[in-house]
Amino acid sequence: MTCFTDHRDLSRATATGYLFLLLLFSSFINIWSSCSNGSCQVVDSCSHSTDCGPGLFCGNCPALGKTQPFCIRGQATIPTSVIGGLPFNKYSWLVTHNSFSIVDAPALPGVQRFTFYNQEDTVTNQLKNGVRGLMLDMYDFNGDIWLCHSFRGQCFNFTAFNPAINTLREVEAFLSKNPSEIVTIIIEDYVHTPKGLTKLFKNVGLDKYWFPVSKMPKKGEDWPTVTEMVKANHRLLVFTSVASKEEEEGIAYQWKYLLENEAGDPGVKPGSCPNRKESQPFNSKTASLFLMNYFPTYPVEDEACKEHSAPLADMIRTCYKAAGSMMPNFLAVNFYLRSDGGGVFYDLDSMNGQRLCGCNTIAACQAGAPFGSCKNISMPTPSPMTNSVGTFSGPVQFSTSTSTVYHPNHLIIALFSFPWIISLFF
């Protein structure tokens, strides 16, 4: 009996050992078979940014309960690289709201900045990642023209970012290196210096790319084709919020050419897409470009991934219907990189797919094929990216790091929730 007991215990021990080895082997197989070294696709789990494929980074979205890192898309498909040669107004482009208002941007020496932030990487990086429209707030400040937030139309040292010429140099460098790309700049204009903007753009060398106001459609007709714009080197569109500057400086008055929905909270309210008061009505026949604002009044970095999920796609459909089946040409957002996977980039692919070929995504378009002839793609997939992928330097997590992410906007929003503080500035 003693021998039998010993043999039985030995058998159990052997079986347990085999089971342990089997489980251990299975774990190794799972690890070996999981993606890594640039093979991970959108929403695949990742540990480091190098795990994800081209145009992707490793991040998360705690606002949606997604705390484990996964691959997130970070670069747009340039629609003209898929189907080119169409009028400029037949495409949809990504715009960054307050492109200059960058987290961790250095403040003036000896000054603590006290304002909101809207983006997380440089303008150069934004352009490399497919952003083709920049919203810039320009002010007279310190004897120069600065990019700045304001209180009642005035720039202060604690709301200033940098001289506008610095950002415009980034735009000039991009246009110089990318001779087939077109960039749009939309200026919230508080510059009162006579000919100030004209001198600014000329000093930085952007006048050579200027799309002349005289050639802009004024009766709702199509714009020139992107091929014609590139051939003429008219690759920079500039709009101002001041009507008089169209005649004085040759800068297009924004709401003469752009239809626009309300910015801030009214622009993100589900099921509603109201016309901006300064804009022509959506049923206007004199403007052939449509700018869709989609960002809350108070920007919060870690909420943007939630905003850029299903609610954004729903709002695009809402605004499309509100504008009489007119697809937005420009989609303006805060923190454009943050999403639950595909984000603004998948939505742009969908918009351009419907525009250019009648497909659900631009990845299904086939150049030269009849409209509505689509590749069999079950879901949006990452499109081929360019080689010049921007390197992201903001606080989006690229790994499993659990370090606290600094969100300066939280403090600003908390302070502005007290009416007595608002009264100090207004």
From TrEMBL:
<dbReference type="Pfam" id="PF26178">
    <property type="entry name" value="PI-PLC_cat"/>
</dbReference>
<keyword id="KW-0812">Transmembrane</keyword>
<dbReference type="InterPro" id="IPR017946">
    <property type="entry name" value="PLC-like_Pdiesterase_TIM-brl"/>
</dbReference>
<protein>
    <recommendedName>
        <fullName>Phosphatidylinositol-specific phospholipase C X domain-containing protein</fullName>
    </recommendedName>
</protein>
<dbReference type="GO" id="GO:0008081">
    <property type="term" value="F:phosphoric diester hydrolase activity"/>
</dbReference>
<dbReference type="GO" id="GO:0006629">
    <property type="term" value="P:lipid metabolic process"/>
</dbReference>
<keyword id="KW-0472">Membrane</keyword>
<keyword id="KW-1133">Transmembrane helix</keyword>
<dbReference type="InterPro" id="IPR051057">
    <property type="entry name" value="PI-PLC_domain"/>
</dbReference>
<feature type="transmembrane region" description="Helical">
    <location>
        <begin position="12"/>
        <end position="32"/>
    </location>
</feature>
